[in-house]
Amino acid sequence: MHYDAVPGTFQGNTPDMTTSAELVGDLAPDRPGEVLTALRAVSDALRAEGDARAIFPDVYAVITEGVVDGLAAGLFTQPAFISRLAGRFARRYLQTLSWSLSGLPQDCTAWSAAYGQVGRAGVAAIQHAGLGISAHVNFDLALGTAEVVEELAPARDAALLRAFKRDYDAVNRVLKTATPRVMSLLAERYGCPVAPVFTGVAGWPARTQALATVVQWRELVWRNTLDLLGASDPAARQAVVDRLELNSRVAALFITGPPVVAPAVDLTRRLARTIPPVPAGLARRVIRTIGA
Question: Which InterPro entries would you find in this protein's record (predicted)?
Answer without folding.
Answer: DUF5995
